[in-house]
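Handout, page 2. Input:
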Amino acid sequence: MRRRRFAQALTLLCFSLHASAGFSAIAQEAPEKAAQQLVSLDFENVTLKQLLKIFSQQSGLNFVASSEVELKTVTVYFENVTVKDALESLMTANNLEYYQAEGSNIFVVYPANSTSKKLQTRVFFLKYMRLSTSPLDIGGQKTVFDLTRAAELASGSQGSTGSGTSSQQFPSSKSSTQRGVDQLVASLLSESGKVTLDLNTNSLIVTDTPEKLRQIAQVIEKIDVPTPQVLLEVYLMEVKKDLISDLGVEWGGTDGALATFTAGSRTTGFPFTENFLSKRFQTRNRIGDEDAPDPTQESLTLGTFSAANFTATLHMIISDNDTKILSRPRVLTLNNEAATIKLITDAAIANTATTTTAEGTAVTSANQAERTQVGIDLKMTPQINEDDSVALFLEPTVTTVAPSSFFSSIFLDPTRRSIRTLVRVNNHETLVIGGLLDTSEISLKKRIPFLGKIPILGYAFRYDESDGVDRELLIFITPHIVRPGESRKQTVYAKDLAVKRMLDQFIGEEMDRSLEAVLAGPKEPVTKLSLPAERNKRIAQALNEMDPKTVKWNR
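Output:
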C-alpha cells in the first residue's frame, strides 16, 4: 500500500515539473507574440493604473504600476500600432521605465529616476578588447577596480567594491583611461548602476536595470571584435652621406610626404628554360652573326614579384663597403598598439669615485662606472585607416658617445639624435626615413720603420692623415595589414619572404657559376643551367604555394 502511494506521489511530482517547464516556455514566448499585436487607445487625463488595465485587456499582457506612478495622469491616442511601439512611446513621453519579471509576462512600470527600481547583475567576458588597465599594463597583477562613474575614473578616485573586494586607485595615465571598453560601459550606466573590472578574467561585472543591461550587451557585441594587426618589416642601415645622392632617393616628393616606395617590380629567370644562357650569350658575344637568335623570341618563363610604382627610386645597388646593415627585424603588433625595436649597448661614460670615512682614520674608496644606453631605439605605433592605408607614429632615437671636449679623455659625452613624425603610407608601401647624421674622424698614420721615429727628422719619413666621414642612418619601414582570420595568409607571407631571399641567393650563385663557365671558353655553347634537381623541385613547389597576390607567374 505504501509502495503504491509513493509511486503515485512520484508520478504527480514528475508531471508537475514537466508542466511547469512547459508553462515557463509558453510564458517566455507569449510576450514576444503579444508585442506584435495591434492596439487602439484614446484616453485623456486618466490615471496610469486605469490605462495599464485597459492596455492589459487588449494586449493580453500583465502590467503592474509602482505606488509612485500608479496615480499619475496621462493622455494617449494610438490607432492600430503594435503593443511594443505603444508601450515604448508611453514610457518615453511620461519619463517611465519598465522591466519584465524573469520567466513571466508581467511588466513592472516605475519612474525613470526611481532609486527603488529592480537591479540585476550580469558578467560580460571580453573576447578581444582590453580593459583600461589590463594585466598586460601592470605586469600581470590581479586587481579588481570599481568603476562607478567615468568621471571618477579619469580623476583616479577610490571607493569600495563590496563583497570583500578592495578597490584600488585607477591610473591617471591618459593613454590608459581612454582605450578601454569599460570607459564606454561606464558612460552608459544609469544613476543606480555600477561596473566592476576583473582584470584576472578580463571581464566586466555590471549591475543595472534590465533595459540598461540589454543596451550594454548590444554595444559590447558590436565593439568586442577581433582587432586587426600590422606586420612591420624594418631595415636599419648606415650609409655614407655621399652615397645618398647616388642612390637617387627623392626626399619629399610632390605630395609633401617623406620618401616612400613600393618595392618596385623586377623579373627573374626562374625556372630557367633550355637555351636561356646560350641564346643570351650568343647574342651578346656574336655581334653581327647572322645566326644569332633574336633575344625577343626567347621562350623564357618569368617570375614577376608584384610591386607598384616607385616614388623614391634607387639608381644604384649599395655595395657592401659603403653600407652597413644594422638590423632587419619584423614585428607584429595590434592596431593602435606601440612596437619598440632597440639596438642598445650599455656604455660607460664616466667614472664615479665614492669615498667613505668611518669613525677614526679609516678611509674607504670605491670606483663605479656611470653608464648610459647607446644605440638605436625605434618606437612605432600603426593605425589602420578605412582605405587600408596605415598611419604610422614614429619616434626613432639614435644615441652615440664621443670623447668629452671639456674633460679628460676618460669621460664621454652622449649625443642623442631623434625624430618624431606622423606619416601615412599605403598597405605594403615602404617608408624611408633619413637625416640622422653622424660624423666620425678617421686617422691614418704611415711611416718607415726606425726612420719614422727619429725626432724632428722623422717627419720626413712618416705620413699622418685625418679624414672625417659623415654617415647617415636610413630606416626602411614597410607595414603589412593582417586582418582577423588571415593567420594562414600571415604564415604564407612569411614563407614568401623566405623564398624570395632564397631565390635571390640561389639565382645569384647559379648565374655566377654559369658566367664563369662561359668566360672560361667552353667548347660547346652553354645550353642549360646546372640546376640541382632536388633544389629546383623544392623551390618550384614553394613558389607554387606562395600567395598569388604577392607573386604572379606569367606562364
